[in-house]
């Protein structure tokens, strides 16, 4: 179990920083033809819309789970902030337009128990002197992902959930948002 949590944290953290750049202010709203993620975290809104730094992937994993991964980041702007947002979905059936909620572990043969469901993550280095990504508690998940449009070219939807700090295990933030991403 600890290995799964560590792997999720590593993949989420790495994928966010591997594709770097900026979140923007409300004045610079994206158009529907641009990839973007807009997220509100405890009342603060962040918009990530630089096309080279908002990524989305979908497919089937070697362990037979289907997945969608969406992430964006801005490594460091001039005010010392650095944010990462991550949305991950694992399912046993092909991903489709519908509402996905929470999650569970399922025994998948020799792969062992693997997570099926929604995982959200958010990190803000400005608000946290020791940057740690707040994530969905996979033992008691409270996350919803609504996929409104899914095609070979793009994915559109909304998400929300309660995230916690995996170190001290406290529910720390509420996150909600929307996205339109191109593959």
What are the salient characteristics of this protein?
mainly beta; 183 residues; 13 strands; 1 helix; disordered N terminus
What does this entry look like structurally?
The chain has 183 residues and is mostly beta strands. It has one helix at residues 2-18, and strands at residues 23-24, 36-41, 44-48, 54-60, 66-74, 83-91, 99-101, 103-107, 113-124, 134-136, 143-150, 154-165, 170-182. Strands 1, 2, 3, 4, 5, 6, 7, 8, 9, 10, 11, 12 and 13 form a 13-stranded antiparallel β-sheet that branches. The termini are far apart.
Beta-strand portion reads over 45%
Sequence of secondary-structure elements: HEEEEEEEEEEEEE
Largest sheet: 13 strands, antiparallel
User: Helical proportion?
Assistant: under 10%
Number of helices in the DSSP assignment: 1
Separation of the first and last Cα atoms = 31 Å
State mean pLDDT (0 to 100 scale): 78
How would the global form be characterised? globular
